[in-house]
Amino acid sequence: MAPIVTDRKSALAIGYAQLIWSFGSIFSTWNSFFEIQLPGGLSDFCYSLFYPLIFFGVVRTFTFRIKTGALELLDTVIIAVGFTSVLTAFFLKPAMLTFEGSAFAVFLSILYPVGDIVILAMALIYLILNPISKRSLILFFGLLSFSISDLLFLWLSINNRYQFGSITDDGWLLGLLLISLSLSFSGGVAKNSEKISSFAATIALIASGTLLGIAAVKPGYFPTFILIPGFITIALAFVRMSFALQEANSAGTERLLARTDELTGLANRRNFLTQLAQMKSGYIFLLDLDGFKDINDTYGHESGDQLLKQVAARFIRVIPSGSHLARLGGDEFGILTQGTLDEAFELGQAIRATLSYPIALSTEQVKVDVSVGISSFTSKLTTSELLHQADQMMYEAKRSKTGVRIWNE
Fold it and tell me: Is the pTM of this model over 0.90?
């Protein structure tokens, strides 16, 4: 019933976590009061499943994320499985001196409070590193209440002072209530959420590796079942690495496409304007093909695309090293280059010379020309004014059929 401001995945994760915890409590209560006993593993299974669900919901509630990515899910599982299992493993030896039962039973007994500590620590980190809001405060105190009840239950049980149904049990209910109420308030986007999850997952991986290293050096020091979560954590870390590499490659491709003209492989208009904004000196060229429209209309867009690719390849051959060639759109190109006035004029003529012989298309050979307008960079003018000067010169060259014109004011 959380309002629309709450991410639905947060509400569902926390809701199902509480439902599963309730079933665990019901199974545990049943075995405390009735002679017909249910399998003890039922309540343990429910309590264990509660932690990854509540961890996922809590992280999303703090970060207010809209999209769930594969890395987020893997980080959640790595942290939940890695941290809790490793910390529990290191607490197991001293705990077995106090608790009665098998190593596995003792492991489960201390797994829950360790899980509480891990979740509470993550919540405290999010609370400290991100803007405080009603949602984050209520959520944190809900987790604090729940964790204190778990730890108090453990302490009372160790000292044989726990009584079923006492007021200490109400801390669990208060904690779950506050966690639910936190979803009624909107929250801001956490700036450090990805870094926190990534660092925590890395620490969990290192801890799991340490656990397995100790087990290899000292065989028999840990029960065999404790090593399973360590292997799972490391396996998931390799899966996470694979997803991270895929995302990095995709991001790199997207950044490249954002700066590159898809047809010619040259820089695009955005890239050209970025380079122009960083320019301190030199010349700005605007190039417009003469006769391209007729060829495009006569032979079709596919032939027009072939023409543009070949024109771009010819221009690249004469561009000086360190210059910047871009396709600005349609049949218009731009160049940023350094040098003297004479060198700029010579470059304009060289560009025209590249189109002095026909271009072979799949249909037949065609011929185009190019008009070149050049303006000189000056810090007194804005980017728009510099481009306007070069544009004027380009149209003047086209109109006068001189091919190359330079702004000489």
Answer: no
